[in-house]
Design goal:
Length: about 190
Amino acid sequence: MSVIPLQTRPVVIENQTLSKEKKTEFLSTFEKLVPINVKAICRVSTKGSIKFCNTEFIKNSEFFEKDLVNTSINVIEHPEMPEIISLVIQNNLEQGRGIVAIVKNKTKFGKFFWTVSKYTPNTTGNFKIAYQIESTGISEFAKTEITKLYTTLYRIEQKIDVVTASKYLIGFLEEKGMSYSTYIKQLIQK
C-alpha cells in the first residue's frame, strides 16, 4: 500500500490533447499544493534564465538549486499553460509594466501546481536581471475559475491557433468588462 504525500492529491484530466512536442513529456495527474502565505521568489535574466531562486521556489519546483540556476524559466512552465497568457505577461514586461498572473507550473517530477505570480520588471540598473517573480499559492475558488478559462484557451491554441485564443480571451474579458489584470485581482480577492 502506497501513501500519497499530504502535499499532493489526484486530479482528473478529461480528454487531454497535447501537441506532438508535448506528448513525450511525462505529466502527472497529481497536484502539488503550494502555501498561500509563503512567497517563492526568483529572478530571471534578460536571456530568460533563472539567476536566483529562494528556498520556497526550490521546494515548489522539486528541483535542486543547481538544476534551476542558469536554466530557462520555462523549465517549470506546465505545457498546458496557455501561450496567450505567457504572451500577455511578456508584453507587459517588455513595456516596463509589472503584472499579476495566475500560472500553471510543473515540478521536476511532473506534478503540477498553481501560483499567483507577481512579475516585476527590473528598474535597479542591474542589466543582467530582466524581472523578478514573487509567487504564492491560490485559493480553491481562483483555481476552479482560472482552470475553466485556461483549459478553453489551451484547447483553442491546440485545435486552431494562438490568434484565435487571443480573440477568445479578449471577448471573455470584454464580456466581464475587465482587463486581464482586473480579472485576476478579482479572483485572488475572493
